[in-house]
Predict the 3D structure of the following.
Amino acid sequence: MSVASERRGFALPGDPIASNVNVDPRSYLYVYKIDDTIYAAVPCMYEIVDNTLKVIPLEGVYVPRPGDIVIGLVINFVITHWQVDINSPYIGILHASNVLGRPYNPAKDELREYLEIGDYIVARIDSFDRTRDPVLDIRGKDLGRITEGKIIEIKPSRVPKVIGKKKSMLNIIKNDTNCDIVVGANGRIWVKCPNKDLEDIVALAIKLIEREAFLPGLTEKVRTLIANEKHERGLL
Amino acid sequence: MSGKKAPFPLFKDGKRHDGRGPMDLRPIEMEVGILHNADGSARVKMGRTEVIAAAYGPREPPMKAMVLPDRAVIRFRYHMAPYSTDDRKSPAPSRREIELSKVIREALEATILTHLFPRTVIDVFAEVIQADGGTRTAAITAASLALADAGIPMRGLIAGVAVGKVDGQLVLDIDQVEDEYGEADMPVAAIVGLKKIVLLQLNGVLKPEEFPKALSMAWEGLKKIYEMERKVLGSKYKGV
């Protein structure tokens, strides 16, 4: 295959994408360079704008990025921090002071009173650089422990499809079901609905998007699924 | 390579015992995403040889002691199912399986960009469902597809094929009978896009002048297998 000169395209591992272009810092995990040529390392979509290459991977694990909102599961706690599974190769660290909002005193404060093993939390990635585990923070608006609703887990690479262009897909699901949906960048989705039937319908819609992410006519399929399920369950 | 004489001619009138020409591959089937619980998976069938591979990761290591500070650890298991051969094979890993796991792991290490995920583990399992010669090359092809399906960054897709010598004639993609009664068996695997060989073994005897010819025959086969790999992987994303 010749070196691609078009501005957008699809590439498989080992395909040359372009020569003499800059690589967007977020795309370094999905490409590699030999001499001046950039090659794809995963199945991906790419886009070259202003001589800068941006890559959207179609498969892969979640790699934490500072500022991302993720949904984590508390799996353990030690003296100073909780360990949180954030559906990534690296375990999230949640320091006690990032929960309490004040200095932590091990002699006085009991971590179990704030978060138990098995609790889900909405957190923000504070810092991460692959040499150290990601540090989480749950202080802030819309962050913290999850006390109601349902968590749906999908492949992290399908998250952009669930959100859609300018949140189009997410808004369709929200408007058609009146549910509140928080999509974590790590592939966990928190759904809060007026009733259990709607919760199940949202779960079915999200699983449909995950399964058929790369097939045409997805939006219409999601709309039809929600309408049919609502009709069958007598919610219309 | 039993050293025994074949009960029938392996190469006669330009045809092999199963009717193929010297440069013909067996019929190949490939499929990706066949296992729901794996991050990536693939099935490769070459003639009657069939292999399933599953890839997991990069993921949290099961033991902290095994991690490397600067790159991911790759673990590969090649295993033959007890029902894959004519006589039942013990499910315990044999000497041959342990060795093949090592050489295929080293081949995969050449393509996976392990430095991108320090302190993690990448697991790949290849299970031979049916064995009829060329299981290691089918396993490496399946493993490469499973890795790509899992989105694990790699330099390129690996394809594998074996060249053999039967009745003094070099032939491509040998099966069990040709392996057993033939004079040589040379499995080759390569990152075809980069033209880099990642696995080369030779069992039996080839003349010095036969080796380059055997290698160029292998490249012909590898290119065909690589095109099929690209096609099957690309068809998964036809909607994008």
